[in-house]
Structures are given as structure tokens and as C-alpha cells.
Amino acid sequence: MYDSRNTKSSALLLSMPPVPDVPLEIAVQAPCMEDSPLLKRSDSISETINRRVLVSAVANFSTAYNLAIIGSAVLMVKETSPGSDVSAIPAVSACSLLGAIAGQLLFGYIGDVLGRRKGMVLTLTLSVIGALLSAILPFDGSVYAILAACRFLLGVGVGGVYPLSAASAAEGSSDPVLNNKRVAAVFSFQGWGQLASFLLTFVLLKSSLNHAIVWRILLAAGALPGIIVLHEAIVSKETGAFLQNQANPNKMSVWTALKTYERQFIGTSMGWFLFDITFYGNILFTPVILQDLYHASTMVETIQFSVLTSAIALPGYYLSLYMIGKMDFKHIQMQGFAIMAIIFLAMGIFYEALLPLKALLFTMYAFTFFFSNFGPNVSTFSLPAELFPTEVRVQLNGMSAAAGKVGAAIGAYIYGLIEASYGVSAVLIVSGLVSLLGFAITYVCIPCKQYR
């Protein structure tokens, strides 16, 4: 999966030097709405910051891989375990999402109380154990029930990565633009993780290996990223912002923060909720689109197109990274939602007319994912780390991320019902309307920022 672009991405992560300790006098202004808190961060040791950023990046790679791989694995389990109770299949995907929600909330609390470093060590450990148990334990007639339990444990681990990695990357210096670039660069590894899941699946499907072995390899591979960086997470140091805040006798409680930053929290949580309805709903809906376009009926054909879609979407992360400092996250998110809405509505309204134009329709569909990445996929991850103060940063980030996973569960459920009742075009139109609502929420609730 890693090519020269991945090497460049890693080099970018490790080459961002910290800003020396100086009084924070960099004005972060909100000309459109109220000011958000100035983020006091100043870790002066380059090696410390680079280690934390590397751990956070690989943890995000692991998260995306593990959440994406289960769809392909379940198809192979169904093929190789025909005697198992298939009624339990929906529980497998549901448990991954439920575990992620639990992990985002739990590790949000742990990250603010025990620290970002300890939280990251725990969440990586759970991810590794969950991935390995998913590959080893399921057997015979209870394969789906056991797999669902293992994926819940894994989900708790990968869910914790969201708030912890964002805060760890953001608390590196007193330069808000540099911090934001680190957060976005860390999150970009989710794109590589998702692409890796499709590529590895394709390679193994083309091999002569029995599918009963292939799905176990795919699930076990989800433990490798965590194993690789677990030692680095253990020996890394806590962020300076967290340590400094521990001596603060007037730390804000999470309930006080929710009242103080009510509008910003509505913006971060509802923006993430609405985005994940479209994002995860359409990821699961991709095989239906491909069937309509290319009559892709086999798993190999579907995976091929999934690889292509992910490859088209991947540069969106790096366009977001490039634009940080030139645009604030509010406007990155608004333009992403706006373009997604236009493309979804155009595809939905003219779906039948576009069907003969296969290349055009597929390109339009792939570009909804590109503008997800150059838009709300990156910004929803990054905004909570930028907007909320140190003492509640991980908790409010975790709560916002949990709202996103609730949206993912809703999208995964309702899109199938809409398609069955009203057809593919209705699903695309609903995605466009949800994107418009995301644009409106962002405009009203997220403050503008001007960096200087």
C-alpha cells in the first residue's frame, strides 16, 4: 500500500519542527463569530513531538483499516461457514460501531483525566487484542456471535484513537497553523488505512489461498500497526499542555464546558453526525452503485473499484493539508459540504440519464469522496482539538466523534431501506440534502478564524 506518496507523507509528519517556547501572542480571531480559546501548547523537544505524531498517524491507519476490513471479511465468512446462523451478521458491523462509540466516550474521559499518553497505550492495546481475537476465536456455528464480541472490543480500541490522536497532535507548539497541519497530517493516514484494506483483500483474493484462511489473515493484519508503534507509545512523553493544565486549580468541568461552548459543540457534533450519515452510508452503498454501472457482481470486481475510488479520494487529504492556514477549518468544511451536495443532487436527479455515461457517473461518485476528504472528513476530526480548551479537549472531541458514529449507524441502516423503497436516485438525493444541512450547521455554529 505504501508508495512514494506515503513516504512523503511520513516525511512531512516527521519534519515539522516545533515552535520554541514563547508567550502565546498569536491572535486567532473569529471575525464572524465569537472567539474560540487560545490553545496554549509548547512542547519544545522535537523528538518527543515527532514520536507522538508518528504514533497518532499509525493509530489512525490502524483505525481505518480495521473499520473497513470487516465488510470483506464477513462476506468470506459467509461463504466458508454456510452452517452458521446468518441472522447474526448485522450484529458484527453493529458491534464495531457500538464499540467505537463506547471507546470515543471512554477514552475521551481517560485522555483528560489520566493523560493522552496513557490513553493511547490503552487504546492501542485493546485494538491489537481485538484484532487478534477476531482472527483466532471464531469457529463453527457460533462464528458470527464470537466475531461480533471481538469486534466490539476492537471497536472500543479504535474509537479511542479519534480524540486521543487529535489532541496529541494538536498539543505540539504555540503556532495554531502548525498544530492544525499536524492534526490533518495524522488523520490523512486513515485514507491509507482504508486503501490498504482494499489492496490486501484484492491481493489475497487473487492468490490461491482458501478463503477460510484469507479472512483470518485480513483480520489479524489489523493488529500489526498497533504492535509496531506500541513501544513508541509507551516511551513517549505526555503533552506539555496536559501537564501544565494538571497544576491548574480552576480547571473547567465538562458540563461547564458544554454550556460555555454550546454553539461550538453543536457545530462539531452535528457536523460530524451529518457527515458520517453520507460517508459511511455511501461506503456500504458502493456495491449497489457498481452493480448498476458495471454489473460488478463478484467480490474481486467490487474490491477493484473500491481501490480506484479510494485512490481518487486520497489526494483530498493533502489538499486540505496544503490549504490549512490559507483557509480555516470552517470554510474547508463548508466548501466540502457544498460541493458534495451539488454532486449528490446532480447524480440523484439525473441518475437514469447518467447511467449510460459510466465513466462520468463513476467519476462523480468518486469525487464525492475526494471532497469529503478536502472537506468535512478532515475538518470534523480537527475542529474539536482546535476549538476546545485543554482540560476538556479530549472529552468533547470524543463526544463529537461519538455523534459521528451514531450518524454512521443511521446512514448504514436507512440507506438500505431508502434504496429498497425508492431506488438508488433517492439515496443520492438524500445524501445531497444531508450535505446541505451540514453546510448550514457549519455556517451557523462554527466560528471563523483568521491566522496571522
Automatic annotation (TrEMBL):
Q: Where in the cell is it found?
A: Membrane
For this UniProt entry, what's an example GO CC term? plasma membrane
Superkingdom of origin organism: Eukaryota
Main localization category: membrane
Keyword Ribosomal protein carried by entry: no
**Membrane-traversing stretches:** 53-76, 88-107, 119-137, 143-162, 183-205, 211-230, 272-290, 302-324, 336-354, 360-384, 396-418, 424-446
Any GO molecular function: carboxylic acid transmembrane transporter activity
Q: Which residues form a coiled coil?
A: none
Domain annotation Major facilitator superfamily (MFS) profile: ranges: 52-450
Q: Which named protein is this?
A: Inorganic phosphate transporter
